[in-house]
Queue: 2 jobs
Job 1
Amino acid sequence: MNMRANYQVNATPQFRVLSEDQIEEIYFSALEVLERVGMRIYSEEGVALLRDAGSRVQGDRVWIPSWLVQEALTTVPSRIVIAGRDRNKRVYLEKDKIYFGTGSDCPSLVDPYTDAVRKYTFDDVYNAARISDALPHIDFHMSLGLTSGVLAQTYDRHQFLAMLKGTSKPLVITAVDREGLADQYQMACEVLGGPEEFARLPLFVVYIEPSSPLNHSVEAVEKLLYSAEKGIPMIYTPCTMCGATAPMTMAGGMVQCLAECLVGVVLSQLRRKGAAVIIGGVGSIMDMSTSILSYGAPEMVLLSAAMTDVAKWLRLPMFSTAGCSDSKVLDQQAAIESAVSVVVAALSGANLIHDVGYLESGLLGSFDMLVMSNEVIGLAKRILSGITVTPETLAVDVIERVGPGGQYLTQEHTRRHFRAETWLPTLMDRQMRRGWEASGRKTMADRVRAKVLDILEHHQPMPIPAEVEARLKAIVAEADARHAS
């Protein structure tokens, strides 16, 4: 047998931003911030937990010792599994497993029938979930829009109901406060048949955000502690703007972001060892000419990939960003920014990659952008599949058989491999000009909109049993009644 020593195989392309030495510098700098600068924790319960565990406290200012962080990192899970209403639709958050999903809570959308920009309604939130449900490369769903026409204190329950009805995929939710999270947890338990099934395979992850720089609100900490108690996986990540709410340098922005994330790790483990935490964040620059948090900036792509390196080094799941743009419409800019961010996020090995479908720097949740980015994700996954090198794929015998001047189209080898070796687009056009003109000269935007309308008019998600839906609506109605006065 022909044997080869020291033969290495790259099953996928290899990519990273930071060396291990750089990661260690960022980590140790974050520990120094926690010890030397401290954080403001606006929850008395959170402050008490940290004080009792050995942190130095002065009012709401808390300085967390390095040993406490390192102890928490020994008990926080490196692997989290969630599943949708369809229990077979699962997301495995572990090193280098990638999953793409929408972002949440955009105030506006482009009406797919009139092109008018308007606020999201309950039906729009439901339709966004249906579109995610129909797209093969969207693995989880966050509410792409912010429900209007309901009480500000209870919008999250209405959104959750719309999401549950619209998709059977795993969910990432937001919550107004601890009470809102508790109501949504109760709704999830109704859907699953009880808290035991939620504990076995959680239906959702809750997104919780500290307030940069170095602040942790009452609402954020209370949601974190409730999640730890109930076994709800939590994302605890800031939204940092380099030059505004974080240092201008990307390394400095990462240090602050990581320090803020680590507060969530420590608090969660103090409440319950083994509580599941996902770190990362939406880190970008403040564009100095417009003052926006740029969702299309190369710095956001770079920061997300670099934070993924850090999260993997810490053995923690990573919440990343891709498939979004600062453009106001689905145009060339949107396509460029979506494609670059999706490919780099996929190569980085981040776990929950969200914000697919964002336009206008996160103000516009676009059905068109979501559908187009689904195509980009399929392309990126083909790049990630790499090149298989075996005697069969090296094809020396086939090359000999065809010989100079031959052709490979009729070879059995071609028939065996063409489906696995080539990615077939569903929206990108590869026709010759004559065929493209004969089929109506449709642009990418035309094809995307047609796909959106086809899903809206034909796709039906897995239904919720009528008696379960009635109980869900009752929970939402009770929340509305509590806050109506």
Note: DSSP finds 18 helices and 20 strands in the chain.
Job 2
Amino acid sequence: MFASVIFTTYNHPKWLEKVLWGFSCQTYRDFEIIVADDGSGDETREVIERLCGEINIPIVHLWQEDDGFRKCQILNKAIMKSRGEYLIFTDGDCIPHPEFVENHVKLAEKKRFLSGGYFKLPMETSKNITKEDILSGNATRPGWLLKHGVKFTPKISKLISNLKLGAVLDALTTSRASWNGHSSSTWREYIIETNGFDERMQYGGQDREFGERLENMGIKGKQVRYRCSCVHLDHGRGYASKESINKNRNIRKHTRKSGITRTNYGIESLSDDAGKD
């Protein structure tokens, strides 16, 4: 099965390079990478162009002009550009476990979406991880991380990514299987049917709202946080605002209350309409 891995980036080329090296050493090889770029500068383009010649996985750089936080718009463009029948979503600050793509593909089911996990790294460890650490698999190994600045927490067990043990842990967890931006996947046809991401939404909950429309459509979440994991590189969030979060909450509330399955402000919408309430 050919898959498409989609993630966004914005002016963080050092983190992006680490993520791309993470996808270069995946155990599953039949996939493409789509970097959905929300208006980054030349340094990001240069990193992608350089790695296109060094990584044996096709990379598509999809760029849009910098006009504020427009993650949903560039994600929708990436969905339409994708060639995979199965789409895997993560973030441009998440280094995948070496079996990340393989486990997403193996665990795929019809009428389901997968809800994976992540483990947050401190800033110092995020900075110090090298290309060699990533290619060797050390960057997502709990034992190695604990020796390199990471404090122990039971959450680090999400990085084991063993299918048998992970299935037990996923069955025991009380966390809800929701769509998240760091590790989620489903069939492209379902995403097209929902009309993609709601382009009115800013930072805060846009991934959850998309998943709630999938659920309204009968596509239920499957918990795989202990089987499809990544490490999250630390960074600031200067784009977060109380106003945007409240706006997104109201959109999500309407989605849940009305049971809608398709947004009017997604892939098939005029850009002028997408900015309206």
Note: The mean pLDDT is 93.
